[in-house]
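User: I'm preparing a small set of examples for a lab meeting where we compare how different chains pack in three dimensions. I only have the primary sequence for this one, and I'd like the structure in C-alpha cell form so I can line it up with the others. Please keep the answer compact; I'll paste it straight into my notes.
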Amino acid sequence: MKRMVAAFAMLLLCITGMAQTEASRTKKNPDVICGVYLVSSPKNDVDKIKVRITRTSKGLYQGRIVWVYPDKNPDGTERTDQNNPDKSLRNRKATDIVMCWNLKYVDGAWEDGILYDPTSGKRYNIQFSLASNGKDLVARYYKGRPAFGINQQWTRQ
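Assistant: Understood. Below is the C-alpha cell output for the 157-residue chain.
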C-alpha cells in the first residue's frame, strides 16, 4: 500500500511539474502563439483556412487568412468576403481578411479578442490557450461569456 501511495505521489509530482514547465514556457514567451495554423470550418468538413498569427506594434496579436480551400466558389469565381456587413469590403479577397484581432496576453492565455467569421459576416469574441501538445492552439469562440461558447483546435503548420 505504501508503494502504491509513493508511486501515485511521484506520478502527481511529474504531472504537476510538466504543467508548470509548460506554463512557465508560455509566460516567458507570449509570442509562442505566433505562426501559421490550419483551421477547419466548424460547420462542414470541406472549408479550411490557414491563419498567420502575428504580434502587432501595439503588443496585441492578430490573425490574417493566408490560404483558403476551396479557393473558388461553386460558380468558379474567386472567393471573396461576400457576407461582410460593410458593402465596400465584399469584393476583397479571402486572403486579405484579418480574421481575429485585439488579442491580449494574460497569464498564459490570449484573451479579449474579436473573431470575424467571413462565411457569415458575424463577429464573435475569441480567446486562445496552448493545447496540451504545447504547439497547437485551443480557440474558444463565444458571444458574451466564454462559458457559452465552443472550442476548436487550430493546428500549427
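A couple of notes for your slides: The CA atoms of residues 141 and 150 lie 5 Å apart. The two ends are 46 Å apart (CA to CA).

User: Perfect, thanks.
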